[in-house]
Amino acid sequence: MFYTLSKIGWMFFSPLNFIFICAGLGLIIWAFGGRIGKKLFIFALSLFFICGFFPVGHNLVVYLERQYDLAPELPRRVDGILVLGGMFDTYLAEKTRLSAATDNIDRAFGFLELVRKYPRAKLVFSGGAGHPLQPLRTESEDMRRFFQTIGLNPDRVLYEEKSKNTHENALYSKEMLEPDNGEKWVLVTSAYHMPRAGGVFLAQGWHIIPYSVDPKTDGEYRLFAPQFDVSRNFELLELGMKEVLGTFVYYLNGKSVLPFPARDDMLFGLQDLSKTRADDVQ
After folding, report:
1. Do 248 and 259 contact (CB within 8 A), yes or no?
2. 26 inside domain
3. What's the CA gap between 217 and 211, in Å, rounded?
4. DSSP 3-state helix, strand, coil percentages of the chain (rounded to 5)?
5. How many domains are contained in the chain?
6. Are 10 and 94 in a shared domain?
C-alpha cells in the first residue's frame, strides 16, 4: 500500500507535473472569472522559469551528494558488500527482452571495484520489481546477465528480490542475511541517494559503512546554470526533491531515523536512536 501511494503521490508532486497542474487549474479558474486563477497561473509560470533556468535542482543534488564522501577509505577487511538496485529499467527489459540500463549503472561499477578489493566478502544485490507496470519482473534477472557479461560468476552473489523501495531494501536484506552486530557491511548506492539510505538502514538497527558512487553533479554550488538546459535542470530537481520528500515521509512512518537528509557523521551519533526505531518498525 505504501509503495502504491508513494507512486501516486509523486505523480502530483513531481516538479513539472505540479507546475502544469497549477497552470492548468489556473487557466480553468481564470476562464470562469476567478481572480485566483490568474495568480495561480502566474505562480506556475514563475516556478517554471526559476526552476528551469536557474540551478535550483543542481544545487539541491549537490547538497545531497556532499553529505557523504565519494568512494571513501574503507577498513582492511569487510564481511559483506551490498549494492542497491535501480540500475535497470525492468519495464523496458520485459518488453524488449534486452537489458535496459539506467543512469544509475555506475552503482554496479562501484560494486565491482569493491568485489576485486575484497574477494572473500559476501556479495549481495538488493532490488526486486521496481516498475508498477511490470510487478513480476525483478531486476535481479538483469543483474545476473550483467555480472555474467563482465566476467563475475552470478552465483557468487546473493539476490534479495522482494524489495520495491529503499525501506524494503534494508528490511528484506537484513531478514535474509541476519548480520551480526560486529560484522562490517558496505552499502553501495548513488551519492544523491546515500543520505536517505543511511537513515533507513539505521532505522533497521543496521549500521552500514556508506560507499557513495555515481555522482550526478560536479559537487559545486552555482548561482547560475552552466548552460540553459531546462530539461536537465528539471531532471536534477526531480531527483533531489524525491530524495528529500522521501526521507521526510519515511521518518513520519518510522522507516528512517532522520527527518531530513544529513551527513554521515550525524548518522554515527544516531546508533542508539536506531535501536529504538528498529523495535518500533518490527
Report:
1. yes
2. yes
3. 17
4. 55, 10, 35
5. 2
6. no
Q: Which three cell numbers stand for residue 232?
A: 536537465
User: Are residues 129 and 171 both part of a single domain?
Assistant: yes
Taking the C-alpha atoms of residue 25 and residue 19, their distance in angstroms, rounded to an integer, is 10
Query: Whole-structure pTM over 0.85, yes or no?
Result: yes
Residue whose C-alpha cell is 545476473? 144
At 29, give phi and psi (nearest 5°). -65, -40
Q: Fill in the amino acid letter for 265.
A: D
Place of cell 531527483: 239
Task: Give CA torsion, residues 85, 169, 117, 210, to 10 deg.
Answer: 110
Domain residues for the domain of 49 are: 2-54
Which residue matches cell numbers 546554470?
A: 225
Can you give the pLDDT of all 282 residues of the chain as single tens digits? 555 666 677 777 899 999 999 999 999 999 998 889 999 999 999 999 999 999 999 999 999 999 999 999 999 999 999 999 999 998 888 888 888 999 999 999 999 999 999 999 999 999 987 666 666 788 998 999 999 999 999 999 999 999 999 999 999 999 999 999 889 999 999 999 999 999 999 999 998 999 999 999 999 999 987 667 899 999 999 999 999 999 999 999 999 988 888 776 655 555 544 444 444 444
Three-point CA angle 183, 210, 178, nearest 5°: 35
16 and 132 in a single domain? The answer is no
Please indicate, yes or no, whether residues 36 and 82 belong to a single structural domain of this protein: no
10 Å Cβ neighbour count for 185? 21
